[in-house]
Amino acid sequence: MNGKRPFAMKMDPGAAEVIAALHRAGYKAYAVGGCVRDSLMGKTPHDWDICSSALPEQVLAVFGEARCIPTGLKHGTITVKQSGGLYEVTTFRTEGTYTDGRHPDAVDFVTRVEEDLSRRDFTMNAMAYNDEEGLVDPFVGREDLLVRREIRAVGEPVQRFSEDALRIMRLFRFAAREQLGMDGATLDAALMLRGNLRRISAERIREEMLGLLAAKQPGRWMLPEIFGVILPEAAGDEAAFAHARRMIDAAPAVKEVRLAALLSGAGDEARAIMRRLRFDVKTIDAVCALVSLKDFAPETEAHALRAQTRRFLGRHGDECARHLCLLRAAQREAGEALPALDAFLSMAQAVRAQGICCSLKELAVSGDALIREAGVRPGPALGAMLAQLLEAVIDERLPNQREALLEAARAEECAE
Q1: Does residue 8 lie within any of the structural domains?
Q2: Is residue 207 located within the same domain as residue 236?
Q3: How far apart are CA 217 and CA 199, in angstroms?
Q4: Segment 284-318, tens digit of pLDDT
Q5: Are strands 134-136 and 181-182 parallel, antiparallel or unpaired?
Q6: Residue 38 half-sphere exposure, CB side, CA atoms within 13 Å?
């Protein structure tokens, strides 16, 4: 057991039972990685990974095939169903070369947990625990995490990042999330090898970037050198990127808002950037709407503001309005001289509370009714009529009442 004081980890019941079952069968087993790190920091772990001296076929024999999912046999991983949860059990292993810079070409099963921990990325993730032995910490991860408060690579940093370039992104994500510093040699190696991030799939870069953006105030760890590789469009202009980082730090950790802050200078390129990073269509549309609205100015006269707000809600929706107000607050805190959106948000809330029509789907008359009862022709003429009626309702030239709208449509048809 390492560390100045004994560490008693509160085990998840299912994970504890999996470890106990392996112990009863004569194998070594430990909780490992993130769950140990989080427990040391006083957090409740959400994922429980287990490493064991048992080979995959031996894990299958202990728990029975009905309770096992062979999720990663090639790399020694079996997922065990226990107490209503799923627990990955991976055989102690070392790894060979990483030809593709992401996955080991081969793995070798070993018998000691210390050998397994030696292949991991950072010392704070290279700790294991069970109730019998306590904390197994051969690389002094506990001290790095709780005393030095810095992230340090296991072993030789250049080797760790050469094996898997995604570890460079993980370095900054962990540092931002836990508000940690970085060991000098580890940071130097990450910067030296940052070009290897180009070999990592867009999906993996996206997920690590989102993890970084979700931290409390991640700007300090969003180094231009790193973002110049993964997002050159955003980091190419040093002053603009510094401003974007200030906005991100000022904004709440809402994915769409922080992405819009990051891409605020990209303009029309934002959509292409997000497509390259394989974002889903809903997120792309939401973020690009915010980017296009970053200079939005509310009307000052009450009637005009009401009409503007209704058009906004009909076109962009309630969530976009809320997100835009969060983005604007961050812009102002970052030093932009833009009007506040308090009046706009209050108007949006009032419009919604009163159930006021803002869109075609809220219009009191349907296209079918216009065809049947007002003689409007199907096709472009129908769409134009609906849009015209909606504008009249929003401008409060017509009430949103079925008969009034039909009468206006009939009059328009007769005029033509």
Answers
A1: no
A2: yes
A3: 28
A4: 999 999 999 999 999 999 999 999 999 999 999 99
A5: unpaired
A6: 16
